[in-house]
Specification:
Blueprint: E1 3-9, E2 13-19, E3 25-32, H1 39-54, E4 59-66, E5 70-71, E6 76-78, E7 87-89, H2 91-99, E8 103-107, H3 108-119, E9 128-133, E10 137-143, E11 146-147, H4 178-182, H5 184-196, H6 215-223, H7 227-251, E12 255-259, H8 268-280, E13 290-293, H9 300-311
């Protein structure tokens, strides 16, 4: 049976895996990106590690998930913030020239959405929204079994919907984006600002420097009853619920899949988000829309890239 290679490229690490057409991951490897090495050296290692996984196997295609901006049709990466020096680089062409099989490129959040849709929580539906809640908030929208790309692959930026017009500044340059309010980075930033304004918290006893404060630490403190941590955490989940309700109102999918590190901090997040969606998405049948955890876990990047390779131009 032909295999698919999935390559997940991030600013911190790269993961590559070999899977069958059903998404069964057979072998994988992970290694640091070390962005200071530059594009050519990094791609050389990607090719070397991929060749090791291919050895003796019949490969149908290679799929790649990478942070944007990118041009999936031309197969080029267009200066992502987390990959300095990758300025209009021909990633697909460079890999295809070595392995002589079809190679397909997709935004990493869209790739993860395809992975959950075909191999994970959404494999039994036709309309699904995937959201990853981690350092940032990204996602992908699939309608009638097709991924929504939008103009220049910019569709599905669920984390950059405006929730508070005069809210905190987001990394994208806008104010009050969902990402600025409810991502791991946003939660920690808001908490540190409140701490610096004179508010007290048990978290101050757990860290040596404010920079060490993370969303996980805040979530843990909130569970212990710390008033500031609970205030910040509850606010973040409230805004997340509004964001999901907005998406549900516009798209009315059969399922919303939530993944990423923030979803690992307890079922309460899902309970609260479902409650907020029921209250705010008034014109859609919310009782028929499932809001569920992602299933692919730490393999979502690789299996998302595998789905990109498997579907090719049909995604």
């Amino acid at each position: 049976m032909d295999k698919i290679i999935g390559i997940d490229i991030g600013g911190t690490k790269i993961a590559i895996g070999r899977a069958d057409i059903n998404g069964n991951l057979e072998e994988s490897v992970r290694f640091p990106t070390n962005v200071s090495r530059g594009y050519k050296v990094i791609v050389e290692e990607i090719i070397e590690r991929t060749a090791e996984l291919i050895k003796g196997q019949s490969i149908k295609a290679i799929g790649i998930g990478c942070g944007g901006p990118l041009d999936s049709k031309r197969g080029r990466i267009l200066s992502p913030p987390n990959l300095p020096g990758w300025d209009d680089v021909p990633l697909v062409e460079d890999i295809k020239s070595v392995f002589k099989v079809p190679v397909y490129l997709e935004n990493d959040a869209n790739a993860a959405a395809l992975g959950e849709f075909h191999f994970g929580a959404g494999k039994d539906v036709s309309n699904m929204v995937y959201m990853t809640l981690s350092t940032g908030i990204g996602g992908g929208i699939i309608l009638n079994n097709k991924l929504i790309h939008g103009v220049r692959d910019s569709g599905g930026e669920v984390g950059h919907q405006t929730i508070l017009p005069d809210g905190p500044l987001c990394n994208c340059g806008n104010r009050g984006c969902l990402e600025a309010l409810s991502s791991g980075t946003g939660i920690a930033k808001i908490f540190r600002e409140k701490l610096a304004s004179g508010r007290s918290s048990i978290v101050s006893q757990w860290v040596n420097r404010p920079e060490e404060i993370s969303a996980k630490i805040i979530a843990d403190a909130a569970k212990m009853g710390d008033s500031l941590a609970k205030e910040v955490w509850d606010s973040a989940i409230y805004y997340l619920g509004i964001g999901v309700a907005n998406i549900v109102t516009i798209v009315s999918p059969e399922m919303v899949v939530l993944g990423g590190s923030l979803t690992k901090y307890g079922d309460e997040l899902f309970i609260k988000v479902r409650e907020i969606v029921r209250k705010r998405a008034r014109l859609v049948p919310t009782d028929e829309i499932k809001i569920v955890p992602a299933k692919l876990g730490d393999d979502v990047g690789i299996l998302g890239a595998v789905a990109v390779g498997l579907l090719g131009d049909d995604r």
